[in-house]
Amino acid sequence: MKPFILICLLILSSYTYSEVNSSISSIKRIAHAGGGYQGETYTNSLEALNDNITKGFEWFEIDFSLTKDGHLVCIHDWKHTFEKLFHFETTEKPSLETFQFLVKQVSPYHVCTLDDLRIWLKKHPKAKLITDVKEDNLGALAMITKHIENFQNRVIPQCYFPENYPKIRQLGYKSIIWTLYRYSGNNQNVIKVIEQWDKLLAVTMPPHRAEAGLGHALLKEGIPSYVHTINTVEELHKYTQEYAITEIYTDFLAPLENTTFLEAEKPLSENPLFLNDCMATYSVDGTLYIPCLSLSDSNQTDVYKVYMQRQSPEFIFKLDLKKIKYNLTK
């Protein structure tokens, strides 16, 4: 008889997301500041966009600041981030021309301008842009409507204050994310506000709001939620499992297309085939890959718990060990 592992896949949450709000299933992971690139964050660069779109990201948050002459460029701030990217301090905003010169001659990255993003979005029709405007949000979003083709379907603006939500809608944007990092109201105020809105895509929050229960409250309202910025698998599981957060902004945790992540716990038997922090993937074509599986000398059946995100109902299947890719690392 061939040895096999009996694996029980248990639902993470008692909520059935598709029954609560169909929009939740369409929510995608967001690459923060274009996503991390070669270990660096906040580059907002073409290199980051090109690298992370190959890793499965389709939604990209980009930071926007205004130059001295009123043009939008992709930089978080003119102090710390500017110094990090260009290796010197500045006492004033540069003009667009100076910014482009510095990008070409000084920065190791091609930090985007709005025109760069327009061209890049044309080359990547599935990609969407999530804005994080650091000053004059309404003015910047109006500028974007004139520069980005089909902006209604390609750009998801972030709203910072409730009074600006209808104004952003009036600009023609179809999908809006309310991000809370500038909002001073409590979680109860958040729920009261969104009850008056329609077509809100999601609410984004810092970790402390999630830990205070806002994700659960939003789920009851049928509103998807994000938390930022999450860069470890442990944090991902903590916020999606324990705090009912739908998805994350991240620098480095790439979404693999058509792949569900499984986290293997310590085996229920005494024979520890799985190493600590083993991460397996189960794809829709039926392939299970357990990269840190080591084999036992025994032909006995061992039972393991693994958690699978947003899959229902609970089910059990058998695996032939001879068909599993594995290594013997201990």
Can you give keywords for this protein?
2 domains; TIM Barrel; ten-stranded mixed beta sheet; 330 residues; alpha/beta
Give the topology.
Blueprint: E1 4-11, H1 17-20, E2 30-31, H2 46-53, E3 59-66, E4 72-73, H3 80-86, H4 96-105, H5 114-123, E5 128-133, H6 137-147, H7 151-154, E6 155-156, E7 158-159, H8 165-170, E8 176-179, H9 187-194, E9 200-205, H10 207-211, H11 214-221, E10 225-227, H12 233-242, E11 247-250, E12 259-264, E13 279-283, E14 288-289, E15 302-308, E16 315-320
Parallel strand pairs: 1-15, 2-3, 2-11, 3-5, 5-6, 7-8, 8-9, 9-10, 10-11
Antiparallel strand pairs: 1-16, 3-4, 12-13, 12-15, 13-14
Could you walk me through the main structural features you see in this protein, from its secondary elements to its overall organization?
The structure is a single chain. By secondary structure, the protein is α/β, with parallel strands linked by helices. It folds into 2 domains: 4-15 and 258-323, no CATH class; 20-250, Phosphatidylinositol (PI) phosphodiesterase (TIM Barrel, Alpha-Beta Barrel). It is 28% helix and 22% strand. The protein is built from 12 helices and 16 strands. Strands 2, 3, 4, 5, 6, 7, 8, 9, 10 and 11 form a 10-stranded mixed β-sheet that branches. It has a 6-stranded mixed β-sheet with strand order 14-13-12-15-1-16, with no helix packed on it. Helix 9 (187-194) links the parallel strand 8 (176-179) and strand 9 (200-205). The longest helix has 11 residues, at 137-147. It is globular. Mean pLDDT is 79; it is low at 1-21 and 257-330.
